[in-house]
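Budget justification, computational time. The allocation requested in the original proposal was used primarily to generate structure tokens for proteins on the priority list. As evidence of use, we reproduce two of the resulting records. The first is shown immediately below.
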Amino acid sequence: MSAAICLLTLSGVASPVAAQSAGQTRELHQTYDLAPGGTVAVTNTSGYIRVTSWNENRVKVDAVKRGLSEDEVNQVEIQVITRPDRPDRIEIRTLHPRGVGVRPSRVSVDYDLKVPRTAVLDGLATTSGDITVSDPVAGVTARASSGNITVREVSGNAVLSTASGRITVDRVGGSLSLTAVSGDLAIGEVGSALNVRCARCNIRAAGLRDDVTAQTTSGNIELERVGGRVTARATSGWIKINDVGGDVIAESYSDAITVTNVRGRVAATALSGNVVIRKVDEGARVSSVSGAVEISDAKGRIEVNATSGSITLNGIDGKDVSAKATNGSVHFTGRVYNDGHYEFFSFSGEVVLSLPPESNFNLMANSHSGSVNTEFRLQLKSGPIGGGGPIIGTVGKGGAEVRAISHSGSVQIKKSAGQPR
């Protein structure tokens, strides 16, 4: 069955407007029926698309063409396609003249649409112009080549992309997928999974109930209040993540990483930048090539490797801890469990352990070109006085296995501050 097509140039559809000093305008004002849950698509070249919603099963289209001359305005058509056999879909298109020798059109078309709240905006697209959805709809797919996208409330899923422009989105009940080449991204309240990928932009999101994947080539990533897992990667930019219900994977190749309040496990990798992790329930694995590592108030298995930077572990509560620094010191404050394993190594820095006075552990300590000192009473098993080999002994009843080694620095085993010695 053939489609019903309405053109702006048809009699009875268009309302000519008198010429203005800035140029010529033509307007279209029409209303079309749409079945509940139907889809609306708009394809535009130059001009904005603005959408609001209402409780009626109709789509109201208000369109304005603007150009420098009457001839140019008349060459551009607004096409509205409806089909009797598809009462659940409306397509709106801006048609510019094409062909050999045809100059690029300087006509813009602005669209203001009012759609049912149950409608799915399945294909809002403009080459040059902003897209705004300011009222509740069922779903949104929108693309702008050069322009900002703003979406305020979607009960279902949303897929948004822009080549050059800012994306602002809030209150998405389903999943959200964002793609951008250049432009900042601001995200709030997403009910399902969030997937963000951009080239040159900053990403900021808060109030995310499910898993999050965020990646940027040049820009910063800031995530807060995430109910699920997080994977964040920044090639050139810092990463800040706070309050996460699941595991976290964070990778930055040229800046710092800060992760706080994680109820799962953290895996962080930084090539050039410091790594700070605070309040983790299920352990952390950190690798840093050029930067310091600081982990505090963490439980579970802790594994840290730093090539050029110090390692500081404070308030650690775990049975399996490993900290190895090539060019930097290693400092540890925490408890040791009788069945735990703890290994600390620095090639060119000191190793300092601060343990509770009542600790029980087996110690193996060694320094190739420095001293080994302990504030604990050590039952020595082997190790010549004055150095020359590892010191092996037992503190208290023994139990935990503790290894502290420095190639060219001192090793100190202290009792925790504020405790009697």
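The second record produced under the same allocation is shown here.
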Amino acid sequence: MLVKLTSSTSGEMVIYAEHLRPLFELLEKACTARGVFTLDQLPIAIERLQKAADEDREQSRQEAAAQAAKSEDEKEEDVESAKVKVGLSQRAYPLIQLMKRTLTAKGFILWEATGDF
């Protein structure tokens, strides 16, 4: 299911509900078919998402450093089973940017989906 987030001042974005759910859980927002981020809620939401994204990036750096320290044989085994990981920081970035632009312009963000997610 797709969720459309529309800023009153800065455009819109569309994201899969399954990718938006963890972000909304961080923000303690209900994953309802419709909702709003008010102007007053945006600074806290941005701060929480940015903190979580920073922590995710740091964890990715530590994992990369651990991977670099492995022997060549271990690296070859990992390559065969490795999957591309899209982290929370990558998923949160577009939403953070939309929220920042909306906050600067003193707007709000509405979201809409075909049902609760």
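A brief technical remark on that second record: The chain is about 55% helix and 20% strand.
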